[in-house]
Design brief:
With 214 residues, the protein is of the alpha/beta class. It has helices at residues 39-48, 63-80, 90-96, 105-108, 113-117, 129-137, 161-171, 187-192, 202-205, and strands at 26-29, 53-56, 84-87, 100-102, 122-126, 142-146, 176-179, 197-200. The chain is globular.
C-alpha cells in the first residue's frame, strides 16, 4: 500500500502553501483500497477541486463489478465537470461511452488501429523513450511517464528522475503526465521539465496532502 502522511495544515514542512495548488494540472488515479473514508465521498472532494481527469484504475475488479463502479464514478464526474477515464476495461468503456480509455502498453498493442482510433482520449504508461515513441505510433492522445521519484508503490526501485521526464517530454508530441512520488511541492519542477501535469494516486486517495479544501 502507498501511504502519505496526513497533514491537515495547508502548509507542508517546508512551508509550501498547498492552497496555491492548481489541480487542473493533476490526473487523479483511483485505488479505493487506500481510502480511509467513503470512496465516493473522497472522489467528490477530489472532483470539487477540478482535477484534469479521474482515471478509474481498480484493477482487482471483475468487469461486472467494475462497470457498476464506473457508472457511479462517471456520475460524480458529470456532477463536477471532470472527465472520467476508464482503465483497462475496453468493453465497459465502450458500453458506457466513457470520456477516455487508459491501457497498459502490452494490452494496447493487442488492439487494432480501428479500435484504438475510436478513442479521442487514449492513454498509456511509458517507462522508456522507446515506449514513448511506440505510444505515439499507436495513436495515444496522452501518455504517463514514470516513475519519476521514489515511491512506496515501487519499493526498492529508484525513480527515473527529472532528466528522464524531460527527455520523454522532448521526445513526445503528446502531453506527458509524470507519475511516481509527485507531491504538491514537486509539481512545479515536473511542469518545468516540460510535463503537462502529474498523476497522483495515494496523495489523493488518503490524507490532506493535496486536498486542502473541505
Amino acid at each position: 500500500m502507498c501511504r502519505e502522511k496526513n497533514d491537515k495544515s495547508i502548509f507542508d514542512k517546508s512551508g509550501f502553501d498547498r492552497s496555491t495548488i492548481d489541480l487542473s494540472k493533476v490526473i487523479a488515479i483511483t485505488d479505493r483500497k487506500l481510502c480511509t473514508e467513503d470512496f465516493y465521498a473522497r472522489l467528490a472532494r477530489i472532483a470539487a477541486q477540478g482535477p484534469r481527469a479521474i482515471v478509474l484504475r481498480e484493477k482487482d475488479l471483475a468487469a461486472v463489478e467494475y462497470e457498476q463502479l464506473a457508472r457511479d464514478v462517471m456520475g460524480i464526474g458529470r456532477q463536477y465537470g471532470v472527465p472520467v477515464i476508464l482503465h483497462g476495461q475496453v468493453e465497459v468503456a465502450a458500453r458506457l461511452r466513457a470520456d477516455g480509455l487508459h491501457l497498459p502498453l502490452p494490452k494496447l498493442r493487442q488492439f487494432s488501429a480501428k479500435v484504438r482510433s475510436a478513442w479521442q482520449v487514449l492513454g498509456t504508461s511509458c517507462h522508456s523513450l522507446d515506449e514513448v515513441e511506440e505510444a505515439q505510433r499507436l495513436g495515444c492522445s496522452y501518455l504517463v511517464a514514470g516513475h519519476i521519484y521514489e515511491t512506496d508503490c515501487k519499493q526498492g526501485l529508484p525513480g527515473r528522475g527529472l532528466d528522464f521526464l524531460q527527455a520523454a517530454c522532448q521526445a513526445s508530441a503528446l502531453p506527458v503526465y509524470a507519475i511516481g512520488g509527485i507531491t504538491p511541492a514537486r509539481l512545479a519542477a515536473v511542469l518545468a521539465a516540460g510535463a503537462a501535469g502529474a498523476c497522483v494516486m495515494s496523495g489523493l486517495m488518503q490524507g490532506e496532502t493535496w486536498l486542502y479544501k473541505k
